[in-house]
Design a protein that fits this description.
Helix content is about 40%, strand content about 20%. The chain has 7 helices and 7 strands, in the order ααβαβαβαβαβαββ. The longest helix has 16 residues.
């Protein structure tokens, strides 16, 4: 049973502690996709405290499984506790470790892949995402416009690397003939790529 009160507590605490969680308008866009797609299996790269995985659990059918990967052990432990309290631990499976190492060990069969982790690894996550996703599945990447820096000429030195990697990601998803991609200016930028493997 989904516990709305605990869910809101997780959101509140994450915002207070400046833990990056999925923005509300980004979430409503993804909720629409989940309702249309009715996925049975979702892969999330970047669990943080389990907020987005809980959102996915809330907006999918009872048998949908969400596999999610988190590199930070402390955050992963917190996510496990949060998911337990929210009441979705039967649907959410948290893997602790580096996604770069874990992804190659997974088997294909996902309907949706959600990327929200290290910006410098987005291209690796995309490549693995394409391998793991079903035909006509959807790959969603969050924060692709990165505070507007990705589409502007100005970027501070410390953002430069992230911006370069995100530009590469956008180039890859818009030029890949097997992907049909929309870049939406919701939240911090959302890339939605429909996969066609035929």
């Amino acid at each position: 049973m989904f516990n709305e009160e605990e869910f809101l507590k997780v959101k509140e605490k994450a915002l207070e502690n400046h833990i990056p969680i999925i923005m509300d308008d980004t979430l409503s866009t993804i909720e629409k996709i989940l309702k249309e797609k009715n996925p049975n299996k979702i892969l999330e790269i970047g669990t943080a405290v389990g907020y987005s995985a809980s959102c996915f659990a809330k907006n999918t059918n009872e048998s949908c499984i969400i596999d999610t990967i988190e590199i930070d052990e402390e955050r992963a432990k917190e996510a496990i506790e949060n998911i337990e309290k929210i009441g979705v631990s039967d649907k959410v499976n948290i893997m602790i470790g580096n996604a770069v190492d874990i992804l190659p060990t997974l088997n294909p069969g996902y309907d949706i892949v959600f990327i929200d982790a290290a910006k410098s690894k987005y291209s690796i996550f995309l490549e693995e995402g394409i391998r793991l996703i079903n035909d006509s599945g959807i790959i969603i990447a969050d924060n692709v416009l990165y505070k507007g820096y990705v589409m502007s000429d100005y970027n501070k030195h410390k953002q430069r690397t992230a911006v370069r990697h995100l530009r590469e990601y956008i180039k890859e998803v818009t030029e890949n003939p097997n992907l049909k991609t929309d870049i939406l200016e919701v939240g911090d930028g959302l890339a939605i790529s429909k996969v066609s493997k035929k």
